[in-house]
User: Fold ABC transporter permease from Rhodoplanes roseus.
Amino acid sequence: MTTRTMLLGGIAAAALAVGASAPASAQYTDGVIKIGVLNDQSGTYADLSGQGSVFAAKKAVEDFCKAQKCFEKIEVIFGDHQNKADIGAGVARRWYDVEQVDVIVDTPTSSVALAVNQITREKNKVFLNSGAGASDLTGSACSPNLVHWTYDTWALAHGTGAALVKQGGKNWYFLTADYAFGHALERDTAAVVEQMGGKVLGKVRHPFPAQDFSSFLLQAQASKAQVIGLANAGADTINSIKQASEFGIVQGGQKLAGLLVFITDVHALGLKTAQGLTFTEAWYWDTSDANRAFAKEFSAANKGNYPTMVQAGVYSAVMHYLKAVHALGSDGDGAKVVAQMKATPTDDKLFGKGSIRADGRKIHDLMLVEVKKPEESKGPWDYHKVLATIPAAEAFRPLADGGCALVK
Assistant:
């Protein structure tokens, strides 16, 4: 596993890296604002985060410095945590202690994110999580050094889970990735199902990551549950859906609930297989001119792929972080930077206006979407139709219910 330094390329990058002389009052550690993108570069989550998130972080720096004069060098590096908590924790410690990284962003895989969250608090740095889903990050594990940006398991459960129960899916069986994210998503969705009068008939947990889901799917099929809840993500979700189709599970009358689905998953599945999937999204490329422009530029730099909500969240989070450190004139005290981020309303071209709560939860609207039929798609990556907007005030867990010690 290697960590490579990514300096912003080209003429514009040279201007950003050199900048002008910093104001006398500004205090940036080592004269550099150093951003570390920590994620999966080659495994099950590489498409939904990976190099696309690195591009998003670099693009945020570029756009920020176009909008206002940067007085310091801003550097973006990246590392591969390989979806392993010990590796992710090791990278985080080295970055903070040796490489003077000021902020870690992205970090899908909740077990890794929970470890990095604790280290970030110990080192008084900043952790901007876009990729991991566990709602514990703003609950029992909340930290004054964390902002949880894009989505979480509570939001997915109350968006997708509630919608499917309302459609008549009262009896559920869960196929769950056996690590922190899967457990949290299963827990939060099961709670919604039961609160709405439904019943959980059973569950089975699969290794993370996995390739063969046949035995798990056969157990789910035998349960005769109306809904099979896929509490997994990335390649695990893709393979679960493909193999479920091969077994004729959907054709037999059971419905698959992709509790976390990304546009890259839909692309990998193809519309013929993915059509009709209903799920919760925080961001979709074809909902505004700004989103479409970002997607076009992203695609040109990322082998034709379009951005996921995680990658868009990295852009948004880095943009707001840079506003905060410039307002403070310092990146040295992570808790103070996060406090400044919370005190300032969020506003950027991809997510629009929002806010950050005391527990570190970034608040914005979510969308309930459905995958189009092949004949409904008008072109490449035209995959989603928006069924409903979930208002920001309803999209995330109520502040008082999370058990965060920061909430007075």
About this structure: The first helix runs from residue 10 to 18. The chain has two domains: 3-151+286-364, 154-282+365-400. The longest strand covers residues 32-39.
